[in-house]
Specification:
There is one protein chain. The protein contains 6 helices and 5 strands; from the N terminus they run αααααββββαβ. The chain starts with 18 loop residues before the first helix and ends with a strand. The chain is mainly α. The chain has helices at 19-35, 44-62, 69-98, 100-113, 120-140, 203-211, and strands at residues 166-171, 175-180, 189-193, 198-202, 215-217. It is flat. Strands 4-1-5 form a 3-stranded antiparallel beta sheet. A two-stranded antiparallel sheet has the order 2-3.
Length: 218
């Protein structure tokens, strides 16, 4: 009673991948996004692929008799996939709202280099959220103080994610030469991660490893 998936073709320069691979990638992205303190590079292509698969699977389910047990089981699986996608997107929006100023400051530089973390829709949402926040502050506070006090620097309100937070991770491959900064000012430590080993480490030293898929948050 396995779910029926279609093969997925990406752009011309990318290999065909299976829907199971897309789902696994999306599950990993969801888990990483929930556990990482900062917003991660978007996986919008995987989301779009999976949404297409959901439509395909719903058509197949509708062909089954309502009394067929497979229909109920497949619907439960579909609901699980929909939850993963919705929660993944909501987690990203929550981070955008919480760290909007710092994310936009960083994203403007990333857009110029073509390494943007946000989708176009997320970027537009962040811009509008920032404009609304400025407008609210002006109407709620600045309009009620003397004119010489009405200017303010939005960057003074910036909130940064805690990159020193500790995370639980698994190494997807062997990684050598990770430098762990000693926050107490003593000597830094260099460690290696063996494939499939599990660790609790500060997020900052492994951030790039996470984004490149060399480690997975748990």
């Amino acid at each position: 009673m396995n779910m029926e998936y279609e093969n997925i073709e990406l752009s011309d320069d990318e290999e065909e991948i299976t829907a199971q691979t897309v789902l696994k990638t999306l599950q990993n992205a969801w888990q990483n996004e929930r556990l990482a303190p900062e917003i991660l590079p978007h996986q919008n292509e995987m989301v779009e692929c999976m949404l297409g698969q959901i439509q395909h699977m719903e058509k197949n389910i509708n062909k089954l008799p309502k009394t067929d047990l497979r229909a109920s089981i497949h619907k439960m699986e579909l609901n699980r996939i929909k939850f993963i996608i919705c929660n993944y997107l909501k987690t990203r929006l929550d981070k955008i709202e919480k760290y909007c100023i710092s994310i936009m400051n960083d994203e403007k530089q990333r857009v110029e280099s073509g390494t943007n973390y946000l989708t176009p829709q997320e970027y537009k949402y962040a811009q509008e959220y920032l404009m609304n926040m400025e407008s609210h502050l002006k109407e709620a506070a600045l309009d009620h103080v003397p004119g010489n006090m009405q200017s303010f620097d939005l960057n003074k309100l910036v909130i940064y994610p805690n990159l020193q937070a500790h995370v639980f991770l698994r190494a997807n491959e062997t990684v050598t030469g990770i430098i762990l900064e000693d926050l107490g000012g003593d000597q830094d430590e260099e460690i290696d991660l063996e494939e499939n080993s599990q660790h609790i480490l500060q997020y900052k030293p492994i951030a790039d490893l996470l984004k490149s898929g060399k480690v997975q948050l748990m």
